[in-house]
Amino acid sequence: MAIVVGYVPTKEGRAALRRAAEEALLRKSKLIVINSNRGGRDYDGDEAQRFEAELSRIQGELDGHGVEHEVRQLVRGNEPAEDLIAVAEEEQADFIVIGLRRRTPVGKLILGSNAQRILLDASCPVLAVKASS
Amino acid sequence: MAIVVGYVPTKEGRAALRRAAEEALLRKSKLIVINSNRGGRDYDGDEAQRFEAELSRIQGELDGHGVEHEVRQLVRGNEPAEDLIAVAEEEQADFIVIGLRRRTPVGKLILGSNAQRILLDASCPVLAVKASS
Lengths: 133, 133
Description:
The structure is a homodimer of 133-residue chains. Chain A has 133 residues and is of the alpha/beta class. In chain A, 43% of the residues lie in helices and 20% in strands. A five-stranded parallel sheet of chain A has the order 3-2-1-4-5, with helices on both faces. Chains A and B meet through α1, α4 and β5 of A and α1, α4 and β5 of B. Chains A, B: Belongs to the universal stress protein A family.
């Protein structure tokens, strides 16, 4: 059993990582962080640094509790959604954790295509979390 | 802390209820089942009976483990999504559990409006589960 989360260096991605780690600790499930590494557009160096820092902190905490974890670098040329779903199936994951953007009071936000795809196509449950502010 | 789930007498609703109960047991969180009770369209007596049977079984199991639970009958005239979100906020829920329909191999399914609303508007995490077959 495992908890699967994407390597997504944004505020929402960080919230998802944090929650995924909490769930891994609670269940003593392995945490798998999937880096589909497409870089390019939307890349934000500051967020990437924050994500890395959070990841290091989490890895230390999981080590401290004897909970297995790994970062998988995938270069399969897939959409991130496909990678997450495929790994979740291979590992019979407890669930996939994804981050969602918060809707603004006036904004009519629709779900991003990756999020929607994971929600609809993953056979395991999907835990959707928001950033805390 | 609590796990919040809708009273939704469908195959997906039953899967959500089951998973919500598992999570409540794991965390020793209270399980709150929200019945917005709009009846009418889509009402399926067989599914309602199955849901009731599952709920009774689950209530027994939660009692056996000393985990608190309740069914709240809400007649606020709200959409079910609003009721779930409101209760989740009042109770500072761990998360809301919702059921999603499985996409058919050919079908281009989009998320139902209630599901989409809960995913976008709930401030707590949302766990989306599918029926097992």
